[in-house]
Amino acid sequence: MKCKTMRHEIIEFQWMTLLLLFTICFSSCKDDKDASAEPYDPSQPVTVTDFAPKAGGANTRMIIYGSNFGTDSSIVFVKIGGKEAKVINAKGNSLYCITPQQCYEGTIDVKVGEQDVIVSSKYKYVPQKVVSTLCGYVDEKGNGEIIKEGPFSDCGKIDFPAWFEFDPKNHDILYLTQDAENNGNGKPMRILDLKKEMIYTKELNNINRATTITWTNDGDMILAAPQNGGAKNRNNIILKRGSSTDGQDFKESSWVALARGNACNGSMVLPQTGELYFNHRATGNVYRYNFEENGYNNNPEVPGGAGLNDFLAFSVPNQTVDFSMVPHPTGKYVYIIMHESHYILRSNYDEETKKLVTPYIVCGQSGQADYKDLVGINARINKPGQGVFVLNEEYKAANKDDWYDFYFADKENHCIRILTPDGVVSTFAGRGSASASSYKWGKQNGEVRERARFNQPVALAYNEATKTFYVGDSGNYKIRKIAKEQAPDDLGGEESNDNQNQENQ
What we know:
The chain is mainly β. The protein folds into 2 domains: 47-125, Immunoglobulins (Immunoglobulin-like, Sandwich), CATH 2.60.40.10; 129-490, 6 Propeller (Neuraminidase), CATH 2.120.10. Helix content is 9%, strand content 38%. The protein contains 3 helices and 38 strands. The strands form 9 sheets. It has a 7-stranded antiparallel sheet with strand order 1-3-6-5-4-7-8, with no helix packed on it. β37 (468-473) and β38 form a beta hairpin. The N and C termini lie far apart (65 Å). Residues 1-35, 300-307 and 490-505 have low confidence and may be disordered.
């Protein structure tokens, strides 16, 4: 026992000796290195020999090598592509700086004191995904015109954004519902013409609220309307398509009463069958309606969400909560977003019965509101909003079974999240660290994770052709855009007027 103790003491002494020697050696090397960092000498030339990395985006940590940089960073200035880079420190023969945004031209200009040096080779700027403001304006008190048509630069506030949908026959047209009452009538639907950069309104008479938008296979619009006439509420309203291509001539020509009462706030059409699935929030039931069998005007009554078992598809675990449904592009399954219960369900499509089956949880937990980037039921979300499926080219190249990730607005976490087919939840945009504030919300534009912030994002859309996301940012009364940066010569829209350093206090 004594020998064993002595052996341990000898080993411990040896490790302490090695650690001491390493510390002394490291400190000596550090002192020698720091000792070589001489102050700037104006009588000697400033030289630049190299820099690294040679390519990258904004906020990249760059080291510039050379001589006579000195140690006083206050007299050192670096521009990249004509834009000022933030200098962190100077150590005689090296400079440490942060690359600015959109420094496309790439020329590196180093100025120390009165000496100015242009580097012969250029930094290759790689465009990043950034958040910008598409439209929406309020003053510092949150006031702005609610119903205003006009260009994106002057269209008032975006009030209570709920659900985006592109016109399936014209992807330049994006529709947005506004889920709020306005003196007995709902807020108007907003129509965004992305090509003309104009926004229009469509009054929804006698509809107190409008939530989701879905489309028949013929291209007619279906609105879920949770409040429309009290106990005899007609929940799913079909707007027949007119001949115009500007998205403004849908007519309230027929009313499909598939649910009674203030209960239906989520509808969707399953692509491969063309059937309408709609919810009844008071009971947690989801009903299935076949247009070929029942027509557009049969109007079967679902009193209080009960009865008509032939129409009942399945039920979700929670009752009296808002939820919506988003079909996978293949129609193989549907995600059910439990907005107020903080989780997402999946219902698979049964090829034999031609129906959706009882759903199961894919991420989050009922009643467990939090923020955690984890897997499946261990992940935590907080009032998820609208979601969209986005093609992942890596999955396609690897010939995986499922090629799509699911992006969704996480309202009370103030960000956009990603759910992979394997159930992994991560953060895509928002919750930036570009300020000293401890708040996770704000209105800053810029790089999606380092800088950008949102305030209660709810609605979300994605244009596959342009690789662009659109976000209904409810707390900021704006529509935000997420897309890859464009070189100045290629800019097609306006630059954001938002001050990137602004905080939402």
